[in-house]
DNA sequence: CGAATATTTGCCTGTCGCGCAAGTCCTGTT
DNA sequence: AACAGGACTTGCGCGACAGGCAAATATTCG
């Protein structure tokens, strides 16, 4: 198991990330200082910068963790499972908990991250990380050669599809569960994949 | 035609972007101050921030312009042309000039942007912009409905392919022309598109 | 327990982003 | 051609920030 030192570091990192997100949602992005985040997480301001190099990075730490978990989720699927089934399951696993009503604090977090221009860079980094994590897991699963683009292309398409699903979910009125949108977008993706690239549909 | 005011603004923006890139390549990213960039472009430091909100954004301004040009290049292709042909041409158009030997200053610029962690956020933003610009042009060309994911998915795949091509080009030893890599990656993409998603290859 | 190693913290400095107000330069009108 | 109105630039100033450095504190391992 991981030593105490490592677990404490993870806990601090998580506390900082959660505090950053919560404060930013509550007060608005520009009304949160690094010092506030550090205080809320119970560490010194200087320590904040040992973990994150900006408050934007801290706010998006949750998205980064989610990206990595999604890669792991794909790896955890049975190796014999067809790729598409495994991808589908891995991408939906993240939202498995919220049965019907979406958690409003989560909703607001997503709205913040996707809506604030100052966060776009960090958000895109997290998205790219998810794509790469998925691609690596796909490559392992398929045993493709390192220079085969297939894993990255598929992972990219899947990531884009969940991005679209998120947009639609945020825009949905009345609000519905996000799984529904992700599921739907992935189905559309499967259909799109069968469309040829050459011609108009 | 555009008024003098507008043209001056474009010129200043470009001068700042070019100066930022050149200085960063010459001295290293962290040895360039905003003041240096402003001075090299012949404007006051305060004016710098009227155009860009960080030096990283200024450095990536060239990539942003390139992304927009690529979208325009696709729009400029004959409407009757098959999508794939038009995409191929639009993506290669950007590099049409450097015939054989890659311009070392451009190479170093790309190496900087893709290699420096501090620039990743801005770089990803530029990539996303290219994807979206391409997607919009594709949607216009095909006349798809606004909620059809097809344009975004295809644009994303094409963008990822050029990203891979760039990586390979930077790694290529001995150096070769980048068109070759882009061309090759796009061909691979066309092949990949015909692979089913369900099974191992 | 004690040495070796990692992490936290306080202090400090150079840099930054931007609000504000004054100055300067375009533009369209008369 | 002059002028009024609006847009862009510039200097000043302030709050915030990122990270180097070294001392203090905590964890690990022999």
Structure description:
The structure is a homodimer. Chain A has 2 domains: about 1-60, Homeodomain-like (Arc Repressor Mutant, subunit A), CATH 1.10.10; about 60-200, Tetracycline Repressor, domain 2 (Orthogonal Bundle), CATH 1.10.357. In chain A, about 70% of the residues lie in helices and about 0% in strands. The first copy, chain A, starts with a helix and ends in an 8-residue tail after the last helix. Chain A has helices at about 5-25, 35-40, 45-50, 55-60, 60-75, 85-95, 105-115, 120-140, 150-170, 180-195. Chain A is mostly helical. The first copy, chain A, is built from 10 helices and no strands. Chain A is globular, with a radius of gyration of 18 Å. Chains A and B meet through helix 6, helix 8, helix 9 and helix 10 of A and helix 6, helix 8, helix 9 and helix 10 of B. The first copy, chain A, binds a DNA duplex (30 and 30 nucleotides) through helix 1 and helix 3.
**Count of individual beta strands of chain A:** 0
Rg calc of chain A: 18 Å
Q: Proportion of β residues of chain A?
A: under 5%
Largest interface: A-B, 41 and 42 residues
**Helix share of residues of chain A?**
over 70%
Chain oligomer state: homodimer
Low-confidence stretches of chain A: none
SSE order of chain A, one letter for each helix or strand: HHHHHHHHHH
Tally of contiguous helical segments of chain A: 10
Give the CA-CA distance, first to last residue of chain A.
54 Å
Top CATH class of the largest domain in chain A: Mainly Alpha
Secondary-structure class of chain A: mainly alpha
What CATH architecture label of the largest domain in chain A applies?
Orthogonal Bundle
CATH H-level homologous superfamily name of the largest domain in chain A: Tetracycline Repressor, domain 2
Per the CATH scheme, the topology name of the largest domain in chain A is: Tetracycline Repressor, domain 2
Mean pLDDT of chain A: 94
| Dominant shape of chain A | globular
**Into how many domains do the coordinates of chain A divide?**
2
Main sheet summary of chain A? none
């Amino acid at each position: 198991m991981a030593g105490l030192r490592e677990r404490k570091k993870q806990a601090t990192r998580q506390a900082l990330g959660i505090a950053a997100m919560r404060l930013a949602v509550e007060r608005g992005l520009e009304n949160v200082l690094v010092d506030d985040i550090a205080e809320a997480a119970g560490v010194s301001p200087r320590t904040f910068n040992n973990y994150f190099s900006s408050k934007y990075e801290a706010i998006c730490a949750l998205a980064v963790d989610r990206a990595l978990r999604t890669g792991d989720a794909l790896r955890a699927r049975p190796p014999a499972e067809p790729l598409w089934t495994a991808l589908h399951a891995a991408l939906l696993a993240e939202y498995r908990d919220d049965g019907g009503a979406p958690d409003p604090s989560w909703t607001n977090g997503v709205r913040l991250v996707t809506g604030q221009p100052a966060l776009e860079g960090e958000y895109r980094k997290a998205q790219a990380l998810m794509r790469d994590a998925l691609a690596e897991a796909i490559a392992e699963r398929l045993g493709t050669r390192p220079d085969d683009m297939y894993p990255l292309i598929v992972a990219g398409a899947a990531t884009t599809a969940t991005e679209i699903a998120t947009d639609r979910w945020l825009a949905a009125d009345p609000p519905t569960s996000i799984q529904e949108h992700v599921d739907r977008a992935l189905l559309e993706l499967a259909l799109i994949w069968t469309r040829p690239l050459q011609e108009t549909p």
